[in-house]
Amino acid sequence: MTDEASNHALPAATADNTVVPPTTETELSAEKNVRSLTDDAIQAEVKYSMLNPELKPVRRIIADDLEWSLRIVPPLTDLALNSLVKSFDTNPKYDQLLDKHRNQLLKSLPTTVPLKVTAPLIEDETYWQKCCKEKWPICDIKLYDNSWKRFYFEKHIEEIIENFIPAQTDMKQLFEYVNLGAQYVKRLNIQQLLPPVEMQDKILQNEDEFFDDDDENELNDGREAEVKKPLCDHFDFTELIKFLPNLEEFHLVYGVKGCGMNFDWNMFEFTKKDCQILAKCVQQCKTLRFLHLHRSKVDDLRIRMLIRDGLLDHPTLVELNFEHNQISDRGCRAIAKLLNGHSKLRRLNLCNNLIGPQGAQAIAYGITKSTSIEYLNLRLNRIGDEGGQAICLALLMNQTLRELNLASNNLSEPTGNKLAEILNRNKSLTKIDMSANRLGGDIGKSLQEGLQDNSTLLHFDLRMTECGQESEYIINQKLKNNREQDRLRRIQDKNSHDAKTRTYSHLF
Questions:
Q1: pLDDT tens-digit profile of 147-179?
Q2: Cα distances (angstroms) measured from residue 68 to each of 29, 41, 52
Q3: What is the residue extent of each domain of the chain?
Q4: Which residues, given as ranges, of the chain have pLDDT below 50?
Q5: What's the whole-model pTM score?
Q6: Region (Disordered): which ranges (predicted)?
């Protein structure tokens, strides 16, 4: 730079060292450039300090070299790990690192890295926890065997299925997640299934002819629309089930959440084709243990088809939940056949259906033949005393049922008397719910007498049964004593088991 340029670039100084402000436009622009460069350097320093709070700003002076700083050069390991983080999308290096370097890498690795890169490589739960917390702030990891990676894949697959529109949504995104995380998926909890969108093609004629409002309304009212429907009614699980080798729980609701003003009963219909697809999927899935199909308007025709084509003689199924549906007596006869040696069912939930006396009798017959059933829920049905007595008689032959729920079934004295008779002889029941049935005060005394020699029943719900406060108090005291005896028995069994398995190798 020449002297003349230097004089124009910097403000002049007087003999007493006072700075004379620039006067020319060249001097003003030169000073402005210097100030902008200085401000940029200061802002960069502040920004770096904010991104790295553990490092405090160490600049002390403004030097001619704007990159000058007192900060110590970072270690080569940190520089190398930062380089690996930046290139992890295209050139991932993970298995070759030491454990301490892996942990440091995962702390800096962003969650935006493609899943096809991270899913096969990273098993560390810390990284997957970070991914889950970023997308779902509230996570109950206990329901997923404390595995964040399982939580991540199951939630993503569930959300894709719940927002899937048949014949419109592409399956590509779903199968990308399935191919990468199929081994981690053990449960699918589908809270809604969207119906297909019907496309209406109105065949209009005389398009060039002008119609006024009245003529156009008359034409539209009189013309029928041609409706094209997709091949399937809801999401087809057939291909998906093939890629899930570890699926054990399947929860389904054939309905729409939050439909608002667009409500239509067709949104909550479990069609015949849906039933055929589901039966085929259950038959193919040999690892399935729990099937929940609730709030889906399942009627007798659908349940019979589902049992015949999918549930009968299933090798691993142990729990069925059909609560809040429309199953009546004909459907119960099919369920009874399932209990009669054609399944390994342990838990059966038929709460809030349309089961009457004949249906309860069919279920009772199935109970007498079953050697595995442990839980039966018939709450909120219409079995009446005829069905209630049949269930009680079945308890004399069945020795595996532990929990029975007959609440809100319009039961009265005949059922109460029969139940009081079998309490002395049944040694397997531990919990009974008879709430919201008008049993009466005499039944309360009969139940009190029937429990005198019963030491296995631990819980007996008699709320809103009109059995009388005195009888309920005595029954509760008896149950309290049974629970205490059961606790002491379990402690004794545990101690005896520990004594048998204890070794004394440490003494030798």
A1: 999 999 999 999 999 999 988 888 888 999 999
A2: 25, 10, 18
A3: 1-72, 76-125, 141-203+211-496
A4: 1-19, 199-231
A5: 0.78
A6: 1-29
